[in-house]
Amino acid sequence: MTDLYLKNGRTVDGAPIELGITGGQITAVGPKLNGLQAAETIDLNGDHYVSAGWIDDHTHCYEKLTLYYDDPDLDGVPTGVTTVIDAGSTGADNIGDFYRITRDKRTNVYAMINVSKTGILAQDELGDMNRIQDDLITQALADYPDFIVGFKVRESHSVVIDNDVLPLIAGKRIQKANGDLPLMVHVGANPPALKDVLDLLEPGDILTHAYNGKPNGIIDQEGNIANFVWAAYNRGVIFDVGHGTDSFNFKTMAIAKYAGLDPFSLSTDIYHTNRENGPVVDMATCIEKMLLLGYTLPEVIPMITSAPARNFRLAQKGSLAVGQDADVTIFQVRQGHKTLTDSNHNDRETDTLVVPTHTIVAGTVYTLEG
User: Fold this and answer.
1) Which of 97, 141, 190, 318 could lock 306 by a disulfide, CB 3.0 to 4.6 Å apart?
2) Can you say whether the dihedral through the CA atoms of 218, 224, 229, 230 is positive or negative?
């Protein structure tokens, strides 16, 4: 007998979909699963969307830090997110502790390892190149191969101080020496210049905070996408939203959308402060902002399912197919009013609300208040 039967759902394209789940895996998928017998059935009445579990590929959820931290189970399951990837909060010194304290979380937790061995103990973790020790990273990868899914380099002036792109050069060296795992690069105030950062990135590398409103951004002085940005985008650098407290601007995103410089992935850069006080709040709020700017559900949902699963090689996640992990997000799109705010305190009004109602992780159902 099937453990769980999701009945009368619909895909983001509007097609009917039903799922059977057993033993933490998806065991049946179809428009109608006639005759399926299950221990538990959830009838979605045709008015709920069913998607692969949402993946947030840029979070900060190591609870023992003082700058950027949170509980993964506040960023994840209660918000419809089944999997969070911490973006470099920890380095070789503390990633083992992070691994241990996340084993009993309801939300799936993975991590990018910061190339600084300290992680983000302080804002300037890459201000001292001696904190980058290749052998310590190699050992951490050997110790936690199913937890560490990539590398993180934060390339903004407050982080690197006078080291410019040297930490990124080191990060690329470490990447190539350790199985070529994905590398995510944070950008912000210069130096280093965004062009110098992008010039070092290769296909499959990830630029996060790509749509910020800072002078060191993707928009040139004439208000267009800079040529060097197009060059990186067209050669396969992955552009990730990475909303965050300071890194998402409505105007920048609108210019990029009009030009066709669409993000490959949508992430929140969430931690306790921007979750509690905004402007991030949660993944659903970030989806609402993308819809407000003219993206459609069929365009946005892959940005938080199949794209991050592909980018970070989470082969068992990101799609609704037989044999995949039974990570599922069920949500509604409702009419209602909300003020949405970007990272530069610009407000826009929306009447389209995204409301997660159920989060399913490895077949376990969490019913939300929505």
Assistant:
1) 318
2) positive
